[in-house]
Design brief:
heterodimer; A: mainly alpha; two-stranded antiparallel sheet; B: mainly alpha; 2 helices; about 75% helix
Chain lengths: ~240, ~60
């Protein structure tokens, strides 16, 4: 049989593929997290301005990155789903959202616990923080919309539309520290280079990869439930359920 | 390595409360998500199997 990407777009094939890959991504996430935390706490030096409080960066930045990145992936699959009416696209979008919401919440939470000792405030209504809060609300709103509409196909489309409209918020978050005066520090990692200590940067990037693999593992785990639910009248799904 | 003792490590230069509150929340978030994932899978299987049985013999009440 000719190798074909379309083959993996079939829910039945993807169900089995995701099942095989999930443990690998889960273990990769765990190992990278241990390595990243070791570097973050035992190798990386103390920050000359922020002391040890800066060590929140090793989860704050990966969480914030993932909350934006997952949102863009959801918007991407929503666009593909709306354009080509591919069922699996919508299922992947649904499977990614709870993990994205979790990271969005964690970016706010860890940000608050970093802001308090550094700025003297848990929260300020500045551009970066406010747009990040909106991102969290978008996740919650999209998930609420999905669960409110019983017909899965209609729910898919309504959620996809909201996800696409909300995608405008992601560049706003990213560039907010440049466009507006804000308490939040500017980006330390940019396409043009980085202003961070190399060991700190290494720890942060490894943690970002750990978060990435974690998100893939959880989304793959979740998407299998969604596939099974929607395909339950097909022969292959019945075989699995009868086991 | 910046620490000469565990108590120094936990103190995090006086920022221990903030650092560990952040990490504890992250850990809790991951644990909750993994528990919900596993429970979700079991719930899905149970519900679909029940639906399947019910559709084969609709006379009986779904139990």
């Amino acid at each position: 049989m000719r190798f074909s990407l379309y083959r993996y777009a079939a829910p039945s094939t993807f169900y089995h593929l995701a099942g095989r890959l999930t443990p690998w991504f889960g273990w990769a996430a765990g190992i990278l997290a241990v390595l990243g935390l070791y570097i973050g706490f035992f190798v990386a030096p103390t920050d000359f301005q922020q002391g040890e409080a800066y060590r929140i960066i090793f989860i704050h930045v990966p969480a914030a990155w993932m909350s934006m990145f997952i949102y863009l992936v959801i918007a991407f699959w929503s666009a593909i789903g709306l354009a080509f009416n591919t069922r699996l696209s919508f299922m992947l979008a649904r499977a990614l959202a709870p993990t994205g919401a979790m990271f969005a919440f964690m970016s706010l939470w860890t940000g608050a616990f970093w802001g308090k000792p550094m700025w003297g405030a848990w929260w300020v209504w500045d551009a970066r923080l406010t747009s990040s809060l909106i991102l969290f609300f978008l996740y919650v709103g999209i998930m609420a919309l999905w669960s409110a509409i019983d017909d899965p196909r209609r729910g898919d489309k309504a959620g996809a539309l909201l996800a696409l409209v909300g995608a405008i918020n992601v560049p706003i978050i990213y560039f907010s520290v440049k466009w507006w005066n804000t308490l939040h520090q500017g980006a330390s990692v940019k396409p043009s280079g980085t202003s961070m200590d190399e060991v700190m940067l290494a720890g942060m990037l490894i943690m970002a990869f750990a978060a990435w693999f974690y998100a893939i593992a959880t989304a793959f785990y979740r998407v299998r439930d969604i596939i099974l639910e929607r395909e339950r009248h097909t022969e292959w799904a019945k075989e699995i359920l009868e086991k | 390595m910046e620490w000469s003792s565990w108590s120094q490590f936990w103190d995090m230069g006086g920022y221990g409360f903030y650092v560990w509150s952040s990490y504890a929340a992250m850990l809790l978030g991951i644990v909750i998500e993994v528990v919900l994932l596993r429970r979700g899978r079991q719930d899905t299987l149970r519900r679909l199997r029940r639906l399947e049985r019910w559709e084969q013999s609709p006379g009986e009440r779904p139990s």
